[in-house]
Design a protein that fits this description.
By secondary structure, this protein is of the alpha+beta class. It has a single domain, classed as Alpha-Beta Complex (Nucleoside Triphosphate Pyrophosphohydrolase), CATH 3.90.79.10. It is 24% helix and 39% strand. It is built from three helices and seven strands, in the order ββββαβββαα. β5 and β6 form a beta hairpin.
Length: 148
């Protein structure tokens, strides 16, 4: 059976400079794992028994980044499933999109992560080494741009 994990792609909007496009002010939250290859990823984790996928995404975000559901706005109309093998077993990760209500809210990492960064799209794609995560971030950005 496939391992199932769920998470949130979290973004914030900074005050754009008068000359810049609104989408240039978007930054994405990535966390650096404190285990393995120390890869960068949005907050996510395994579904616990009795939990639905969205509950898992919010619980993992609270555990890994210290963010409460009340500090985020879930963005309607975006949900992405990624499928890839981990140690020879299939894994499914479901992501939703959420915006920080206050872009200055403090991030509080758990011991699962050693660092976090708020990154513009180009940098976020560089930090997220995996092709499917890079493609997802670009897709999210396109989705947000199309809503402006």
């Amino acid at each position: 059976m496939a391992v199932r994990a769920c998470g949130l792609i979290i973004y914030r909007r900074l005050q754009p400079a008068p000359s810049s496009k609104v989408t240039d002010s978007i930054e994405y939250l990535l966390l650096q794992t404190s285990y393995g290859t120390h890869h960068w990823t949005p907050p996510k984790g395994h579904v616990d028994p009795g939990e639905d996928d969205l509950q898992t995404a919010f619980r993992e975000t609270q555990e890994e980044a210290g963010l409460q559901a009340s500090q985020l706005t879930l963005i309607e109309g975006y949900k992405k499933e990624l499928h890839y093998p981990v140690r020879g077993k299939p894994k499914t990760v479901v992501y939703w999109l959420a915006e920080m209500k206050d872009c200055n809210t403090e991030i509080k990492l758990s011991e699962e992560h050693q660092a976090f960064q708020w990154l513009k799209l180009e940098d976020a794609c560089r930090f997220a080494e995996y092709d499917d995560m890079q493609a997802t971030l670009k897709e999210v950005h396109q989705f947000l741009c199309s809503r402006e």
